């Protein structure tokens, strides 16, 4: 009988030794976490096969519980041969393409950016020589913005689709530990190997990829998309094509595509998002806060994470997308703008921690106009570019100087790519954003003084936390404006992060498969 047992393992012990005390030799780890409330300990949940009598004894004692495996995700095959266009190769696009192709449908994937192998060269060229390719950068290209991130897979969603996502990533080369870690992450270095393997997996299923191809036009007839125009960005040629269904898996930086959709009569709305800065600490500072003075240097403990919130009078402030052992990177996708983001390798061994510190913004701040919200983002990014010296250096200021309204003579010495420059970030942000951030740091200083050391440095500007736009859709994942158009993922306004975007793509694809299997003629 298979049972699930929780085992607490002190730092000075090993899991195998604790299991031997219970007479368990064969097992599988299904969850691993750290309890750092007092002395840090590892908490494992393992599955083992025991004799029924022994298993029931442990269950009655409350030591174990019956193991219930995660059910498999069933993908139905549909008899109808339909032609599907997937726009974007982020998590939503890749996983929708996977589901649709497994069901036997013809899938074409277009991506304005380049394959990972070429994209890496373009990003490195930008960081080293400051030459930005507006279609191949940290935001655009195979794998989406997540390719140059920490590769976090945390989500509140718990179901078979999440397991399917993680299992697929492992099959494509992600570390197997993501299947059981409480806070799994892949790391940008590993993701750059996983994504090409994912591409090859889809190709074997018959998926056609077209990189450096941009969706430039949607034509509607009544309540359907009748055709689309796709531009080859290498040759400059545009071609009108016909598809039965279109999956829009845009990133939150696809501002030109949002504008095109509005012009085509696709209904959009503004949605809440957040804007702010990134803060860099030495990683050992965060380790000491989370693990305590006695244990923070212990070799078994991974680089620590944190999450802080502050409820202000008018607006809330929160940390977001925290990257232990990572870098703040310049993540611009438009010329003469500076955008920052966080990125970590799998080992998280840079010696520095960073996190976004952002303030909530709402549709009413922009008269419920998503394009006014986009213009607000763009204006901040342009101002940050100038403030950093107009060469894609990111403007930076020590936290205490930001609070006190003064220039910084020194900045933190590492944890950023490519460059930071001392600047008055307190003057860059509007009052309704800078004031709550100052209040938040003072509040956190009162709670945990170590969190605001003298060398903690803010970097600007963090504007791409999520999409300010929502492409309105029905409960069956179809656009309210076109019944064969499926807006999915983060750019469409329905997800945030790799896992939730992937699951949204899966749900959209399954919704179409259900529709095709129910109708005799579609």
TrEMBL record:
Pfam families: FAD-depend_C (PF21688), FAD_binding_3 (PF01494). This is Uncharacterized protein. Signal peptide: none annotated. Coiled coil: none annotated. It comes from Balnearium lithotrophicum. Residues 272-465 form the FAD-dependent protein C-terminal domain. Residues 84-113 form the FAD-binding domain. GO terms for molecular function: FAD binding.
